[in-house]
Amino acid sequence: MSSNIQALCRAVADNTSYDAFTPTFTAQQWETLASYLQPSDIAVGQILIDQGARDRTLFFIESGALSVHLMGDKGQMQLAVVNAGSVVGEGSFFSRLPRSANVVATGAGRVWRLTAIRFAELSNRQPGLALELTLALGAVIAKRMLNKLKRVAVT
User: Fold this and answer.
1) CA gap 137, 18 in Å, rounded
2) Which of 26, 68, 85, 118 has the fewest CB atoms within 10 Å, counting from its CB?
3) pLDDT (tens digit, 0 to 9) for every residue of the chain, 155 residues total?
4) Is 133 helix (H, G, I), strand (E, B) or coil?
5) Class for domain 6-153, per CATH?
């Protein structure tokens, strides 16, 4: 692979969590996907997802850790910690509903963003790749929904 998406590929391949993001992309498909993504370095405390916001951006985590938490009447409640090789933002991506939780970086790292507009372009130009991405994201949601403690962490 020629682009800098190699580290994300490794993180996804190395992720052994119960809700792992496991697409069956070839090296060429990863390269193609990279052209639709925007890499971003993240700092400790940086907010990636703001509870209640109307945004459908997906975040693929190359490195670092993210805390998923709810703000409620009694303050902040942590729902999950999501690590390298996983994804956040899948709930609003599919539902088009406001964000259900906050997602904040707990460690410096790097994420790759996929906006809804770029996904629409991907779907039109690379339908097979978009389908595999959608199925892999759907699997993440299904796994998170099966775990009662993590169900509310679908962002």
Assistant:
1) 14
2) 26
3) 445 999 999 999 999 998 899 999 999 999 999 999 999 999 999 999 999 999 999 999 999 999 999 887 887 888 889 999 999 999 999 999 999 899 999 999 999 999 999 999 999 999 999 999 999 999 999 988 887 665 556 66
4) helix
5) mainly beta
Q: Helix, strand, coil % (nearest 5) of the chain? A: 35, 30, 35
Contact yes or no for 58/113 (Cβ under 8 A)? yes
Domain segments of the chain: what residues? 6-153
- Burial of 113-141, coded b for 16+ CB within 10 Å and e otherwise, reads bbbeebbeebeeebeebbebbeebbeebb
Query: Radius of gyration (Cα) for the chain, nearest Å?
Result: 15
